[in-house]
Design brief:
Helix content: 25-40%
Oligomer: single chain
Low-confidence stretches: none
Number of strands: 13
Bound molecules: alpha-D-ribofuranose
Order of helices and strands: EEEHEHEEEHEHEHEHHEEEHHH
Largest sheet: 9 strands, mixed
Shape: globular
Strand content: 15-25%
Length: 298
């Protein structure tokens, strides 16, 4: 199975601060670093580092070459990424001393995709291929509809969630990867048990992976449920932890690992990402994940 990840590519401007700036407050950052990022790019890099054959589709501006270089170095096929005249998407990321973050996105080229370009990319894919989507590009609803028409398996990480997600035919999605906030936004429920029950009722054939922060992760399909906890690591920067989880979970399934093992591998990988600075720069390799000796948090 080949993976086509239709997603964003961002230049992340990461500011290290004592705390996240409050409304009306001005604070001086201790450090500014520039990292490759974007939920799309991060998930492609994570998939590739997990050993999956991944083709990334999307758009960058003339300033986006360094993002393509990072993808290539990780083994991502970027032949379907177009360079357009609009500037590359970027993110202003504040990272506090506690490792928490706050992100402002400027979509740039990510939101200027056309139906013609999407049709061209999808023409090379079909049954047996998987398309992975997040919500940082435009026309996600169209990609879902066309990918389903071509018989592709559809995995959706509806992040960052907004009303454009509700315009999508979510009934066509085979695998949801979402956190509690996104789960609440889709289902209108707050409690994780209720979110899972509502997802099962509305999307009975779909797999659901619900990440629950410190409470770990829960997977469900039909009546079956599995859980996994989180590992004890020093929290340096949580940016791209969810993207790392997504890439390693899907990568493990593509290696035909059982779901319980895929949850373990993805949890180790995202814990390692949390213990390092940056977005895609923090994503471990498959070997690092296999060699990691981490302790589960009780
Ligand atoms: O998930 C982390 C990513 O969100 C960052 O890399 C940033 O670009 C934003 O898209």
């Amino acid at each position: 199975m080949r993976v086509l990840n239709f997603g964003s590519l961002n230049i992340d401007y990461t500011y290290t601060l004592d705390h996240i700036v409050a409304p009306g407050e001005t604070i001086t950052s201790q450090k500014l670093e520039v990292f490759p990022g974007g939920k799309g790019l991060n998930q492609s890099v994570a998939l590739a580092r997990a050993g999956a054959p991944v083709c990334h589709a999307g758009q960058v501006g003339p300033d986006g070459e360094m993002l393509l270089q990072v993808c290539r170095e990780s083994g991502v096929d970027v032949s379907r990424v177009r360079t357009v005249q609009t500037r590359t998407g970027n993110a202003i990321i504040q990272v506090s001393a506690k490792g928490q973050n706050s992100i402002v996105l400027y979509p740039g080229a990510n939101r200027e995709q056309t139906r013609e370009q999407i049709d061209q990319v999808l023409a090379d894919f079909g049954p047996g291929d998987l398309v992975l989507l997040q919500n940082e590009i435009n026309l996600v609803d169209y990609i879902i509809q066309e990918a389903a028409r071509r018989g592709m398996t559809i995995a959706l990480n509806p992040s960052p969630f907004d009303e454009r997600m509700l315009a999508c035919d979510l009934g066509l999605v085979d695998l949801f990867l979402l956190n509690e906030v996104e789960g609440a936004q889709i289902t209108g429920r707050q409690d994780p048990e209720e979110i899972l029950a509502e997802m099962a009722a509305r999307f009975p054939k779909a797999q659901v992976v619900l990440t629950l922060g410190k409470a770990g992760v829960c997977w469900q399909k039909g009546g079956e449920r599995l859980r996994h906890g989180i590992y004890r690591v020093p929290v340096v920067d949580t940016t791209a932890a969810g993207d790392t989880f997504t890439g390693f979970f899907l990568g493990s399934l593509l290696r035909q690992l059982p779901v319980a093992e895929a949850l373990r591998v993805a949890s180790v990988a995202s814990s390692l990402a949390v213990s390092r600075k940056g977005a895609s720069s923090s994503i471990p390799t498959w070997e690092e994940v296999q060699q990691a000796k981490l302790e589960l948090q009780s």
